[in-house]
Amino acid sequence: SASANRVIIQTDIGRGTINPNIYGHFAEHLGRCIYEGFWVGEDSPIPNTKGIRNDVVEALRKLNIPVLRWPGGCFADEYHWKDGIGPREQRKEMINTHWGGVVENNHFGTHEFLLLCETLGCEPYISGNVGSGTVQEMSEWVEYMTFEGVSPMSKLRKENGREEPWALKYFGVGNENWGCGGNMRPEYYADLYRQYQTYVRNYGENKIYKIACGPNSDDYNWMEVVMREAGRYMDAISLHYYTVPGTWKEKGSATEFTAEDWFVTMKKTLHMDELLTKHKAIMDRHDPDKRVALIVDEWGTWFDVEPGTNPGFLYQQNTMRDALVAGLNLHLFHNHNDRVQMANIAQTVNVLQSVILTEGAKMVLTPTYHVFDMYKVHQGAERLETHGTFASYAQGGEALEQVSVSASRDAQGRIHISLCNLDPGSEAKVELDLRGLAGGYAVSGTVLASSGMQDHNSFDEPDKVAPQAYHGAEKNEGGLTAVLPPMSLVVLELREE
Ligand code: AHR
Question: Is 205 annotated in the active site?
């Protein structure tokens, strides 16, 4: 029934910090993500600073983007970093064999990426090449970026115009080495991981946080073997899981879908909860002190490409459905914050579940962008104990809980409660029982909603789906009653007064 969502929020019981890096991003040399999306080159008529688009940087800075993963993805295990340094006109032209067979001119390389991160004010997270690279190549890359003293690689860096080393924390030792990164068995990868990471050195004050390649979705054996054999040599292990409503062959359209497809998309997204729970249980056996973090460095929706676009470019539109997928996943990452210390949505611009789409000089912010914007208040905040009983959202004999909720308290003492109504057909009435509040408080809120399931922002209609002020919450004795429109996300802010 419409009144069956009851949520208790213990405002006085903290459950650990929500690591800001859970709001991280991923950008690969794939389709129009790096080229066109971030990099237009210094001579472009599109407003840029040293070749990097100003509009995209400004939009991402507004999200407080904490960390950006690069250069892949599958591209990482084919990437040879020395091809991407030195005078641009002398850099190698080659084919991006994995993604669309287009020319890669290597104009965006190490210097450009680290400049991008400095401009965004975010941490770089670099994925090294295990699948087709050497131990020496990986070791020299880290030396090139982070060594201050006298060495062949620091000399080369200085010749290329960068005197000071960069600070680099996050470094991945391979990507999807069970697949595009070398089709390895976990036993073999675990040994290679141990070998490669030995030569990923800490120079001076720079301390690298080493991330091992973890499993594909429910490959629990991969997690078991890699944790058992190599867990003690890593700071974190990754997990990749995408929301694919159909099959890998026919994934389904991003914009043309039914109420059944919507339901399946929500259900498959919520599968992340089971994956995190089970992978964490394996990690707990090998690392009971939770020293090693779990990093979901690829997640998001994966649909069929937009009709008429290069199938290797993975360009898809982004609707209200994507917004809900983002909200649900972010809540799950919050809830698993005893292990989940980073997550990187795939992929920032023009690829898969992007927050930004571009077309020439034009830029559109997707519904997913608005979720990251509304939810940024959770970054670095203390998660609050929350539990509830929920109405059911039923479809074709199956049911999910209608509402998902997460709450946190920030450094200024403000409480933020984010709520998702998954149900495209009915509004959700939520009784919020706020426990442990000392005094009175003022409530305000923001809502992201739209009347159609398939509503999205296009270059003709860029603001069709946009956040609005929310007026659906009413105070009562024990807390609040909030009415959520069908298929919507609401973030409430409570300020003590
Ligand atoms: O994000 C697209 C691709 O998905 C990545 O390159 C790869 O790691 C994964 O299979």
Answer: no
Q: What is the mean pLDDT of residues 364-369?
A: 98
- The CATH number assigned to the domain holding 483 equals 2.60.40.1180
Cα of 73 from ligand 1 centre, angstroms:
5
- CA–CA separation, 320 and 330 (whole Å): 15
- Residue 66 CB less than 6 A away from ligand 1: no
- Digit-coded pLDDT (tens) for 432-466: 999 999 888 999 999 999 999 999 999 999 999 99
What letter represents residue 14's amino acid? Answer: G
Instruction: For the chain, give the mean pLDDT.
Output: 97
Say if ligand 1 is within 6 A of residue 354 CB: no
Our measurement of the distance from residue 250's CA atom to the centroid of its chain's CA atoms, rounded to an integer in Å, reads 24
d(CA 36, CA 53): 8
User: 175 CB less than 6 Å from ligand 1?
Assistant: yes
Helix (H, G, I), strand (E, B) or coil at 490: strand
Q: What is the CATH number of the domain that holds 145?
A: 3.20.20.80
Residues pairing with 461 in the sheet: none
Which residues have C-beta within 8 Å of that of residue 312, sequence separation ≥ 6? 31, 98, 99, 100, 101, 102
Number of domains in the chain: 2
Which residue lies with its CA nearest to atom 8 of ligand 1?
A: 73
446 Cα distance to chain centroid: 22
Average pLDDT over residues 203-209: 97
Known catalytic membership, residue 176: yes
Residue entry with tokens 């237009």: 40
Reported as a single tens digit per residue, the pLDDT across 401-420 is 999 999 999 999 999 999 99
Give the active site residue among 298, 306, 398, 474: 298
325-360 per-position pLDDT tens digit:
999 999 999 999 999 999 999 999 999 999 999 999
Q: Considering only CA atoms, which residue is closest to atom 2 of ligand 1?
A: 73
pTM of the predicted protein model: 0.97
In this structure, are residues 177 and 189 in contact, taking their beta carbons and an 8 Å threshold? Answer: yes
Q: What ipTM was predicted for this assembly?
A: 0.98
Q: What number is the average pLDDT over the span 164-176? A: 98
**Ligand 1 centroid to 482 CA: how many Å?**
39
pLDDT greater than 70 at residue 2: no
CA-76 nearest atom, ligand 1: 6
Dihedral over Cα of 57, 59, 63, 69: its sign: negative
Domain assignment of residue 152, given as a range: 19-379
The residues facing 494 across adjacent strands are 415, 443
| Token representation of residue 109 | 């390389």
Name which residue sits closest to atom 4 of ligand 1, judged by CA: 73
End-to-end CA distance of the chain: 34
* Residue 162 and residue 123 share a domain: yes
Q: Cα-flanking dihedrals φ and ψ of residue 374, to 5°?
A: -65, -35
